[in-house]
Structure formats: structure tokens, C-alpha cells
Design brief:
alpha/beta; Rossmann fold; 6-stranded mixed beta sheet; 16 helices; globular
Amino acid sequence: MKSPIIKVEDLSFQYSNSDKYALKDIDVSFNRGDFACITGSSGSGKSTLSLALCGFIPHIIAGDYTGRILLQNVDSSKISLAEISQFIGLVQQDPENQLVTPTVIEEIAFGPENLVLPIEEIKIRIASSATITGLVSLFNRSVNELSGGEKQRVAIASILSMQPSVLVLDEPTAFLDKSSVKNLLLALKRLNEENQLTIIIIEHQPQLFRDYIDRLIVIEQGHIINDFTSHEIDFSPYIVSKKILSSIQMSKREEFSNELLISNEMDVSIKDNTILRNVSTTFRQGLIYGIIGPNGAGKTTFLMALINLISKSNGSVSYLGKNITTKETYKLAKDIGLVFQNPNHQLFEKTVLDEILFALKNLRLEREEYFSNAHKILSQSSLDHYQNRAPFSLSYGEKRRLSICSMQIYEPKILMLDEPFIGQDRKNIEYLLEVIEQRKLKGLTTVIVSHRDRFLFDLVDYVLVFREGELITQGFPHDLTELLQENEQISFDQE
């Protein structure tokens, strides 16, 4: 029997600012060449386990740490983080957390340069990692100008360039379009089979990797409760029923046709780089809109430009017939809310409860009925036991729900959600779907950006398709199905 290259023995960990264990009595091992997925509900301890496997716990993150993790029979707590990083690499859930250099090529080169490798070897590693992640054409781009999906690919490439023996990826496909997901997984499978690279994926939706993984490890409340081999895995508990989506799509209180928000021939340029060209569309009352397209297509830029977080170089935007092209964003916030792709950019208060109430105070909506609703929303979103915790201490998925809750409490007429389902388990996706459906029944408009094409097509009333800064088509889902099925860049999820 071969010896495992990673062995976790009786591991427990409690964050210094928490009153409960994030991990408790963890015993698990990984062999060379494993392709495993760790799943579990939001806040179950998945990301904490990844941080422990890669040495961030206990070397950087403080807390009560007991047990041990053996990396090739060496206790990881007894060696430096620099030594660990040459053996095991971590791609974090939030790619922005690990981008440290100005440009894409510098980011990919950063690790090998710190290993003081020969220049020719560094060049080989850069080329290989960039090819796997589809980044060659972006070498000279500033990382700050990239889309969320492009940043995620850069983070993956920067770790691949280190050529670790073990690769840990925390929700690696969350921000990626379908084409990028397919290419990445095929490349990882090749590295797994040809180089015996051990791959550990942290993921709420393991069905996305059904053709690749050979193990599914389930963690709940800090405990490992199951460790399935490939032939034992049942993916059905993780998949949202199509019936739920279809029922929302079919639901309506009455026909709404009022025009709320109109963009007319909108252009956006940043540093002489044209991001959007000639975008014209109309958002109507009481409908759910889906926005799809590959990474870097301009989807997020479009949302931000609608509410003047990014200046337009041409065109106009009107709301309820009034031109708002240059109106200050804070004056639009009561009627048009935007939940950012990265929740860390939208947290302001010291406690979760105060965070939910933050918008109310800013908008001067401090009426009793709003405040009494805060605790109800906390309970529905499974955040009630965190109400006195600091928002930044929550998991990535919990912070995302918190950002949505802070908008939900005052119900703007238009709510724009940028990748709202990232970091959510099935239960919490269904909660978010209920929020979206209730908005629809009240005649409120919701706009959703997502790479989950099939999911959106079964949910929304109207679809906008972006590519390379242009709105290439728009219409009702049933009218666009044939076009999208023929298009590899914007293909359907197979769920």
C-alpha cells in the first residue's frame, strides 16, 4: 500500500475571534495522483481546511490549533511557509487576495522568480501556465483592469508556474466562462494523469466536476462526514431542481410593461481601452433579466456604467424617463441597487447586523418596520447566528449573501446582482431564488450576471448576450436557445 503524500491527523482549529471550532477532529489523507473534491454547506469549514493544508494555518492565521498535517511525512507546522509553497499550492476563493504584481506576466513569473530559478526555466514555466489558462494574449495587461474571471485565471496560472506536487483550488471555476472552465479542467486532468499532480478542489457544486474527480469528501460543521469514491458519488443533492427555476420563470403577479431603465448607444473607455461599444437596451418593470457572455465581455462594466460608477464616453442612460447619465451614484442607490461581484468591496460596518442596516441609514429609511425585518432576513439567509460578528470574518459565500441582504431589506426597484450564486450551497441558492421570485411578484426588476447559462435560461424572462464589449443579441430565452447552443463561447451548463 502506497504512503499518502498528505496525512491529516486529529486536526482541530478555532479562529481566535470565534467561539466555536471551524475544524474538529479531522482525519483524512491524500495519495499522489488523487483528484478529489471537498464539498459541504456554506461555512462548513471547507476553505479553512484548504488554508490548513497549505500552511496558512497555523503559520499566518491565528487560532487554537491541535493535531498535525504531514506533508510527505513532515509536520507542516515545523517547516516554513516558503518550503510548503514549493510542495502544495493554493488558489484562493477570492483571486484578488493573491495578486501582488502590476501585470499578468509579472504575476505568473512571481513565484518562479522567488525560487531564484534560471531565466530560461522561468520563461518555460510562464509559457506553459499561460497556455493552460488562456492568458498569452493578456501578458501585458494590468491585473487591475481584468475581469473577475480573468483574474481567477491569472491566480491559477501563478500557482501552476510553481509546479507544486499538490494543487488546492477553492471554487476555481466560480468566475470562469464555459469555454475557460472546459479548457482548465482538461488541462488539470492531463497534469493529473501525466504528472501525477494531486488535485484537491473545494466546491459547493461538485456535479460540475463529475467527469474528473475520483473522490468526494463531505464536510459539515467542521467534521468530515463522508469520503466517497467515484462510483459511490450521488450528485443529486447538490443540484437545484429545474422545476424551481421554471416555476419562477412562469410566475407573475400581472403583466408589467413600464420602461424603467434605458441605455442608449452607451460607450465606455478606460485608459484608451474601449470596454463597451454602442450598448442599447431597456429594462422593464417586474421582470428578471439575465446577462451572459465570456470573461472580459464587459458585463460587469455595463452594470457599473448604468449607475455611473464608471464614466461613459458616449451615449446616455435614463430612469423613468429622466436622463441620469451624469447623476451621482448615491442619488440613484435608493431605486437602483448593485451587489458587486466581490463582496469584500461592499462591506462597511463592524457587525453583520449593522451591515444589513447600513443602506437604510445612508438612505435615511430608519423606520421601525425596516429594522424589525432585519432579524427575519438574517434568519432566512442563515446568518442569524453571526449577527454580532465582523462581516469580514464570514466565509466568502456568507459575505455574498450579506451584501444581498443589505439590499433586500429596502427593496430597490431595480436590483443588479453580479454573480450572486458563487460560494452558495444548494440550500442558499434556493434562498436567493426565493428572494428573486418575491421581487418579481412585487413588480420589482432584477438583473443577474452569471456564467451559468443553462441555469439563467431556465430562470429569467429576458437575456442579454455580451461579447468583446458589444451587446451581440438580446431576447426571450426560447428565442435565443439555438444561437447559444451553436456558440462554444457561450454554451450551456450541463446540470
